[in-house]
Amino acid sequence: FSPGLLVVAGSFAAFRLLNRALERLVPPPPSARRNRWKWRNIWTSLAHSVLSGGGALAGFYLHPELSKDLVGTHPPGAHSLVAVSVGYFLEDFVDMLCNQKLHQSWELLFHHSVVIVCFGIAVLLHQYVGFALVALLVEINSIFLHLRQILLMANLVHTTCYRLNSIVNLGTYVVFRIATLAWMTRWLFLNRQNVPPVTYAVGTVGMAIMTPMNVILFYRLLRSDFLK
């Protein structure tokens, strides 16, 4: 039994409670009232992105040894942050499964399954915590992705705020999502001799799935917000 599982369970419950409370904390505008669960879901995801993206940056700042050893170093705060993220992705998985048709959410469900497996290994084994923290840097871009969805649902597409967010979103997408995934793929390739075969296979499959998904999403964002 790993104490990290308690953090996962606590995180799942906390994000579930937050999801339930958000409709009162952030009432949906008239344009979003027909899709209330989605409004709550995006705000819950935004809360996780702020927590995990900011936490990952703080983790590397407070524990510089993490960047030197992505496998064996596991400060309690960094390990707990990865466990909290597992709890969130489980909560979001359940939320989508209960409220959205499978053909509309299968891409995200598949993405969440890969993340839960990869992060779960780090939580249970107390290894690859630094590598998982690198992956959480992606959530810095997710902040602006979720803000974009919120502005779309609030019918604020033709505003300066939406345009500024689109520019920052695309910039952080390149820096914190595409570049981060490319760096992780390179790290796996260079360290293949030092990573157990099963873990290496899971990581390689994860990168092989995430990279094309993120390239496709980048093209969709570019086409929707700029090429039109």
UniProtKB/TrEMBL annotation:
Q: Where in the cell is it found?
A: Membrane
Q: Which UniProt keywords apply?
A: Membrane, Transmembrane, Transmembrane helix
Q: Which domain of life is it from?
A: Eukaryota
From the Swiss-Prot or TrEMBL record, give the protein name.
TLCD2 protein
Q: From the record, give the transmembrane residue ranges.
A: 131-147, 167-189, 201-222
Example GO BP: plasma membrane organization
SMART domains assigned: TLC
- Which Pfam family, any one, appears in the UniProt record? TRAM_LAG1_CLN8
